[in-house]
Task: structure prediction
Amino acid sequence: MLNLTPTRRRFVRRKLLQANTVMAEVKESRKATSRKKRNNLHRIISGTMARKYRCITNINKFTGLSRKSLVKVFDKDLVNYIPTEKRIYKGREHEKSYH
Result:
């Protein structure tokens, strides 16, 4: 155990609790989101600070997000995934609409 003053001990404990709570929330969010929308989680979590302090591997272990995808993120712009409608034509209806 470190020899910390009671005030410093509370401060360190609060910071560790905050970090663990955020990691747990990200882990739950990963399970709840679809694979396409998970890209936004990668963008929120990783970045220059995570790379600078070499935290990508630890983030991968704690949250389960792909390390490869975390490393590839270079900007923080969140991408909105709007599903596009697929154009499915039935044979005869397609022919009638254009003739």
